[in-house]
Write a structure and sequence with these properties.
The chain has helices at residues 62-70, 220-226; strands spanning 10-16, 28-31, 36-44, 47-49, 55-59, 77-81, 90-95, 106-108, 112-117, 131-135, 140-144, 149-150, 156-157, 171-175, 178-182, 187-188, 194-195, 197-200, 203-204, 210-215, 232-236, 242-246, 253-254, 265-270. It is mainly β and 271 residues long. It has 4 domains: 10-117, Hepatocyte Growth Factor (3-Layer(bba) Sandwich); 123-158, Laminin, CATH 2.10.25; 159-193, Laminin (Ribbon); 196-270, 3-Layer(bba) Sandwich (Hepatocyte Growth Factor), CATH 3.50.4. The strands form 8 sheets. Strands 1, 2, 3, 5, 6, 7 and 9 form a 7-stranded antiparallel beta sheet that branches. It has a 5-stranded antiparallel beta sheet with strand order 18-24-21-22-20, covered by helices on one side.
């Protein structure tokens, strides 16, 4: 997100009906019972919040634009032209939200300055790229955390290993929004959920103790994938390449015919 965040000055803008003025403990307040409304705006030079405005008008200066915003209860920020028109007026765009709730639409601009009500989000309390949502009337905020983080300020990494996702005595390492399993010998998969293959070569299961899966050029990986539910497979890695399900691997035996076009055969037994 490209923008100029430099703050040049702040204005305490108020519509005062009575002579007395309370201490402004909040960035924004509308107190209709006392006839007083006030807001503390922060200026971002050469910046523009590109959202649909609720009203626009020509004004003499930024204070007049601020008063116009304050008079509309749904106005939380405004864009003000950086360069006056031929009549010396500045375009004032009154906006229904702020840059904190629309950070992806807050952009650099040589034509405008942006003014937002000073927000509880101004200090950037949300960590780990969390999004800060201002609660102006409560002078508070809520952080919307990225996946993998939690806490009021998104300061805590969620421990994905807490649920013990690694099977078969695998060791879990917590990552941001994920985990990694280090499997014990004989197991594989992202959760150590599958047994690995033990290889015996050159051996075969025998012509009547196997069932064809595919022939004619299948790779070893394709054979294992095709027969993922098999307890054992017989794979021939020679030029013609064949894949079989081994129906009884306990009867496997050596194969010595080296002139066979598919030689050598391998028996893989899942652990």
């Amino acid at each position: 997100m490209a923008y100029c965040p430099g703050v040049v000055r702040n204005y305490l803008i108020a519509l005062v009906i009575f002579a007395t003025f309370p201490t402004a403990s909040k960035a924004f307040s509308q107190e209709s019972f006392s006839g007083i409304e006030y807001a503390n705006f922060k200026r971002d030079e050469y910046s523009y919040l590109n959202i649909t405005n609720i009203a626009s008008e020509l004004v003499d200066d930024d204070i007049e634009c601020g008063f116009a915003c304050l008079e509309i209860s749904s106005c939380f920020s405004y864009n003000l032209a950086a360069i006056p028109d031929i009549n010396g007026k500045l375009l004032c765009e009154l906006l229904p939200s702020d840059k904190y709730n629309n950070s992806e639409k807050f952009v650099a601009s040589q034509l405008f300055n942006h003014f937002s009500i000073r927000s509880p989000c101004s200090s950037g309390p949300c960590m780990n790229n969390g999004k800060c949502v201002s609660l102006y009337q409560d002078n508070s905020y809520v952080c919307v955390c990225k996946r993998g983080f939690t806490g009021k300020n998104c300061q805590m990494d969620i421990n994905e290993c807490r649920s013990n996702p690694c099977l078969n005595n695998g060791t879990c390492t917590d990552l941001v929004d994920g985990f990694n399993c280090s499997c014990t010998p004989g197991f594989a998969g992202n959760r150590c959920q599958t047994g690995q293959w033990l290889e015996y070569s050159p051996q075969w299961c025998g012509g009547y103790r196997r069932k064809i899966q595919r022939g004619g050029g299948i790779t070893e990986q394709e054979c294992k994938k095709r027969c993922a539910g098999c307890a054992a497979i017989e794979y021939w890695s020679g030029p013609t390449k064949h894949c079989y399900e081994c129906l009884d691997h306990t009867k496997r035996k050596p194969y010595t015919n080296t002139h066979d076009g598919a030689y050598p055969p391998h028996v893989f037994i899942r652990q």
